[in-house]
Write a structure and sequence with these properties.
single chain; alpha+beta
Length: about 110
């Protein structure tokens, strides 16, 4: 995975842009919900706010399939796989809601 940085050098009245890629270490999911070959991975991101650090969560959903001997992943689902995708997302939603509902009451 890489992070994109936008660099915009200005030359006269013409603005040129290009992307620089910075390598990022792959992050491990905080939790994975797997139904059949479909999985929903929950990732936690720490964000600094004026009230201190806060954890924001996001979900990535994918399906594992075999291409010959090689395992591959896709984010496309056919009609038969949609119930599995919905269930995995529902489990991820409940997990995130339970964690984001927790409130720390400072002393």
């Amino acid at each position: 995975m890489c992070q994109l940085k936008l660099a915009i050098p200005v030359t006269g009245s013409v603005i040129q842009s290009h992307y620089e890629r910075e390598p990022m270490a792959p992050r491990k999911p905080e939790m994975v919900f797997r139904i059949g070959f479909v999985s929903a991975s929950v990732f936690a991101h720490s964000v600094d706010t004026e009230n201190g650090s806060r954890t924001i969560r996001s979900v990535s959903i994918q399906k594992r399939y075999m291409d010959g001997e090689e395992a591959k992943y896709t984010s496309s689902f056919n009609l038969a796989e949609l119930p599995q995708a919905l269930r995995a997302m529902t489990l991820a939603q409940a997990y995130i809601e339970s964690h984001e509902a927790e409130v720390s009451l400072g002393d």
